[in-house]
Amino acid sequence: MGEVSEDAVGRHRELVAQVRAHDRAYYVLDAPTVSDREYDRLFAELKSLEQAHPGLVTPESPTQRVGAQPREGVVKAEHPVPMYSLDNSYDLGALEEFDRRVRERLGDGETPVYVAEPKIDGASLEVIYRDGLLAAAITRGDGVMGEDATANARTIRGLPLSIPEKREVILRGEVFIHGADLEAVNVVRRGAGEEPFANPRNAASGALRLLDPALTAARKLRISLYDLVYTESGAPPYFATHSDMLKGLQDWGLPTHGLEQRCETLAGVYRYLDDFESKRSGLPYPTDGVVLKVDALSQRQELGFTARFPRWAIAYKFAAEQATTRLLAITGDVGRTGALTPVAELQPVALAGTTVARASLHNVDYIAAKDIRVGDTVVVQKAGEIIPQVMRVVLDQRPPESVAWTVPTECPSCKAAVVREEGEAALRCPNGRCPGRLRAALFHFTRRTAMDVDHLGKVLIDQLVAAGLVQDLADVFALPSKRDAVLGLERMAEKSVDNLLASVERSRTERTFAQLLTGLGIPLVGASAAKLIAGLYPDLPALLGQDLGELEEKLAEVHGIGAKMASSMVAFLGDPQERAMLERMIALGLTSQEDTSAGAAGEGPLVGQSFCVTGTLSQPRPVIHEKIRAAGGEVHDRVKKGTTFLVAGENTGKSKKDKAESYGTKVIDEPLFRAMLAE
Ligand code: AMP
Ligand code: ZN
What we know:
Number of helices: 24
Number of strands: 21
Radius of gyration: 29 Å
Shape: globular
Structural class: alpha+beta
Strand content: 15-25%
Bound molecules: adenosine monophosphate, zinc ion
Distance between the termini: 29 Å
Largest sheet: 6 strands, antiparallel
Helix content: 25-40%
């Protein structure tokens, strides 16, 4: 570590301060102060300065946010002071009751002043600074024990890695994700055949629990701090009131919501509620209510805690949008793995701007626990969720003849007796030949990330299965030999049959082996594992030629595959029926194209996605292409069929975008693209 010149030290300090200020502007104030290009330039300069003078690297340098290696597993951590929940209320009466109790406990001569502030709907996190450095972060867990999330918290760019206060500071806050950033995350998930997150809360709490901080960084988490906790050993009273504390946190450079308001009376609180309810939809983060807190910390101490809540705070929750309607039937969808998910068929009802005719019932235990019956009037709700949920039954409107719902004993599609594995909430259809499962499997097989058969939607799949024209995945490739039968299906014209069969031919000859493996829908084997396997064996015949015992050992060793996936893969290949099906695919002329996308390792957030880049971006195009490949994505020079995304920089013409849309290519801007790249 040679001598570091004063100049370098000074420049380093300057750059750290600048990057930090820009991070704050972007991630806390939502008001970027520089272009992405300028930011990248500063960051690159900082990095090369540190490379030239490794002695300059300190833990609080912005370059050290994603430093840690992926963890092996979850590590528990205890909260220095338990993390309590909040008492909840949905009506103003409860607030009055709260106010009355507070006054009663405080006694004469002490009048509470309240602070009203947003209740952010994310995941709570405890953050601890020691000697001015971000030292630890712990998720809430059960309030006493949480999970160590230190490495992940470091990736939250709005959270300073150092603060001027050198005493130990234990803080609590809410980690959240912007709506737009959630969309980017979900785009990647859908592309990879994964379930999108139903709401921002799940995305945030899931991100804090990820084992690889690089993946957490990609979620672009933000945080808002709302509490400073005093330890039992009696940390010095840093502040006298909650509102002073929030200002103090801001002075230390910590992110707070900045929307708190002191209210001397309940009338003031009500005005805040009104005002807040009208502006919350414009806030970049999701909120589900307002928290009311006693401002004076001395009064808080006097009030103390119940077993679960502080006596000095209450959450006023906004009612989620709800509607009441009749439950017409409980049906089940069977997925390709055989899992049965109960679905509520409803009398269509308007809810939060859409008409809702189906809602989630989660699983059979949920239905039993809530005693939800066909014919009941039920309350459906859309809160942060994208899919509406059945919340409860309006009991006094239950028809007298109604009977309790019975857990289905057979598959709604094939009538096979369902099984329920121990400890699992889901029922399964065990029948490998179930038409319902087959339909779901075909749908998965023919999607773009898999074998990409155009002109084959759900309706046509249903028809093909019902007519017996397709009985397994291999039969897709036999369709060209059954042209007349396909033409005989309802609503099939010559032209549409030609289109379909041409797509089938392309699918049979133009897809990669990784796409095939993805499409087979082998349990646990998703797009990225498929890529890894395809990197080891060039095509299906090569894979089928392996000794299964050796194959299992070999796959289990591969980083990114592991024992569970290996055994699932081998179980699939060892199943005589599946094996015969795969051999038929080969006999029908299935061939795999070489995978031209770089990164044969097939890792990274963009695996299975293809990109065309256009317009003016913050970096030269070849650099961006390289980044796409490095992240496991594929680069297309122009938008063509199958291009997943068009990254449209500034000055992208409308015709380009229209063309992309006509191909079903999603048009994204640079910030969204960078979010996908985990930048
Ligand atoms: P609940 O999960 O509904 O019991 O609400 C309690 C949770 O609200 C806390 O654990 C925090 O994670 C969260 N929360 C969000 N905003 C605030 C805030 N301003 N003050 C306190 N808690 C908050
Ligand atoms: Zn079935």
